[in-house]
Amino acid sequence: MNPLKKLFKQTAIYGLATVLPRMLSFLLLPFHTGVLLTPDYGQLSVIYAWFAIFNVVLAYGMETAFFRFYNGGDNRKTVVSTSLISILGSTFLFLGVALFFQNGIAGITEIDLKYLRYAILILTLDALVIIPFARLRANERPMRYAVVKILNVVVNLGLNVFFLYLLPRWVQSDPESLLQGIYKPDFEISYIFIANLIASAITLAMMLRHYLMKTYRFDVELWKRMMKYAMPVLIAGIAFTINEVFDRILLERLLPEDVADSEVGMYSACYKLAMFMTLFATAFRMGIEPFFFSHSNTENPQKAYAQITNYFVVLGSIILLAVIVFADVLKAIFISNPEYWEAMQVVPIIILASFFLGIYHNLSVWYKVTDRTKYGAYISMIGALLTIIINFALIPQFGYVASAVATLIAYGSMMLLSLFFGRMYYPIPYNFRKITFYLFASILFSVLSFYVFDRNLIIGAGLLLLFLGMVYTLENHNLKKIFLKK
Questions:
Q1: Mean pLDDT of successive 10-residue segments in the chain (486 residues)?
Q2: What whole-number distance in Å separates Cα of residue 142 and Cα of residue 10?
Q3: Of 279, 415, 444, 274, which is closest to residue 351 (Cα–Cα)?
Q4: Chain-centroid distance, C-alpha 49
Q5: What is the CA radius of gyration of the chain?
């Protein structure tokens, strides 16, 4: 099969595994914003921001290292067993330390202790499936990956509906019901975490077979090489997470106490409308990461890498413009409570920032296949530093708008830095003329639709159709070569 056709096929399946579950969880946005007031939703968003940071720490780059060494000529069974033992050891160490020092952690993170205990257990369960999921991807088993991921979110969504919607109504209509024993009023945030915990436990149960190996072998030398490769990835991951979620934490701490949680709640809800771009970029990245490593030793892999990036920009430009054109439609569907709409002004900024991040992930192939992951860490640290500086400087005056602008500047800078260093160490023949044209055309049309014509749906739809016509005219021939070629 044509390698690019195979890549798009796998990306579509990983997209099913990533986009559909998140779309199902996206349904929780109108549900949560309908049940929770903005301060409560803000509090929930801050807790999940800490979740994201700890998830990266508990993975410590081992997933990426697993891909590198699994496809790098080492004994695959040894790579699997060494990775599993490493994750098992570090995860249970975290569990013990976190439970022992839970009061101190609660003080530092400002998370209520009753929520922190749920968080510790969920983080533990999620860490234990990191290598099993990576193994499915490395063995090109996207369907199995998709089934488990989708089931996780279906369970999570179903339990949210049960705890937050059905249970209160059943108990209210029948006070003598047996369900009275599990119902607690004003327990919404805890119910959300309980649903997450049960879903994570079921996911681990489905992936436990990956731990049932006949023999385990921990190769110390291999582990040292993997950790050397993984540490820059960990640093980059922490920096990425700071760029992605740390603004919620800073907003809560830098804004006046009486408005902080409400501001975070509005910002977090509208931020999620950029999820369409994030989902596309994530699905694309999950398809291309194994492709990067498996094709790094083929003849002229740079040409394939360049084509992949070109098509990412084409598709991303369409998504950018489409989401911005239909922003008001999407807000009415997913954020039905007008209390949250005040932050809609940040939506175009965040979507463009997510697009820049997706381009960065495509450009990052140069340091992954040349084992220069330290550059990824450097670039991510620069992005994180920009995020922190801009947020600290501007949040007191501009609130969540400062956070959105900081995200855009950080991701844009990372994209340009990766391009600069990539041209030095691993030149790839990107079609800059085409990339620049699509990028600037989609940004121009987005600005016209959202700001100049004040989100007029008819004008915006016309601009989107015009852009699609341009894409069809310029890309029709190339797309036929990819998808019709055997």
A1: 56 60 70 84 90 92 85 78 93 96 92 92 95 83 80 90 89 79 87 95 92 83 90 84 89 88 90 84 71 65 82 92 94 86 92 93 83 83 93 93 95 94 88 92 95 92 95 77 52
A2: 7
A3: 274
A4: 12
A5: 23
Tell me the two tokens of residue 6: 């195979």
Cα–Cα distance, 245 to 51 (Å, whole number): 10
What are the domain boundaries of the chain? 3-484
Tokens (6 digits) for 63: 């997933």
For 228, the token pair is: 């050397």
Distance between CA atoms of residues 254 and 267, nearest Å: 15
Q: For residues 206, 207, 208 and 213, what is the CA-based torsion angle, rounded to 10 degrees?
A: 140
Burial of residue 442 (CB within 10 Å: 0-12, 13-18, 19+) is buried
- The residue type of 417 is L
Token couple for 217: 């072998």
Per residue, the 3-state secondary structure of 294-310, as one string, reads: HCCCCCCHHHHHHHHHH
